[in-house]
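Let us work through a complete example step by step.
Step 1: write down the sequence.
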Amino acid sequence: MADVALENVSKEFPGGVQAVRDFTLRIENREFIVLVGPSGCGKSTTLRMVAGLEEVTSGTIRIGDRVVNDVPPKDRDIAMVFQNYALYPHMTVYKNMAFGLKLRRYPKAEIDKRVHDAARILGIENLLDRKPKALSGGQRQRVAVGRAIVRQPQAFLFDEPLSNLDAKLRVEMRAELKALHHRLQTTVIYVTHDQAEAMTLGDRVVVMNEGLIQQVAAPLTVYDYPVNRFVAGFLGTPAMNFIAGRLVGSDGDLAFEASGPKGGEAVRIRLLADMAARVARYAGGERTVTLGVRPEDIGYAGTGKFAGAGNLLPATVRVVEPLGDEQIVHLRGPGDVPLVCKLDSHVKVDVDQRMDAHLDMERVHLFDDQTGCNISLEPEHVAHAS
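Step 2: predict the structure and record it as tokens.
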């Protein structure tokens, strides 16, 4: 196994389309790294450049100690698992898994050992004589992974490998891939648009947008301390709530002020002292900010972590979605801003009722409207965010 390094890598397609811009990242040996972002953000193009399936416009890619910019894909000592599995339909599972080794002229006994070892790891020993058409989607995915395992490459590349599976099978395969990485101790670069896959699989998550890295950190760090509004809004289901407003002084304290109900007074939410000190320079004048709060950080009553004076938003219930152990409640907040919160299923709420939405002020974020940056992060969180 080996580490993988991308240094100032860019990719420009004909017509001046910048797919990837100045991408710099070091992936440590045995690390499971996940590239995540919306469609068209450049994550698959980045993976294909590592694989050698796309040429690098500028920058350097290293696998181990070698610069591989001009090395053909077959000589990069990597294995790639594609979204569509890319199995040969006329070959059995055994022959699909053995094909790459036969091309490299491995001894027959070595091929047989590697194929059966991989099949045992993946639980597909009883499928070796079948052809792909006789397999389920999950079984085909295991075969595609097995074909990569037998190569024993320096790095594994996965390009949205679970996107063709149903929801239940995706959850099962996520767990299997995580266990497989723990067992094989391999270097993995994994591309997905599914944030649940990114959060559950990755040692680190690379959030991308418009060809640029937005943030690189451990999954919970990215979730709890997003460096900008894009990252904050992209990760989380349901997505983070955003409320436009400004910072004002209130009785010697700093408060976030948002539009009130039609014809009503503005709503003010007092900030905690430590956050107020970090964002004080944004108070007054015409500078606007946005308050962000996740659905699980909005409560029905001001008790426990939601206790505190001046930390509520008057709202009206619009829609209730029961999900078993919890419910998703859609609200109409001040100025008709839509809000979403997660509540325990035993909390009784009805459509059109008034609900004071209490905020966990330890968990709110403030974003500069001009730059999109999270201005409320403590210095140590900014330092560990990339």
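Step 3: interpret the result. Residues 207 and 215 are 5 Å apart (CA to CA).
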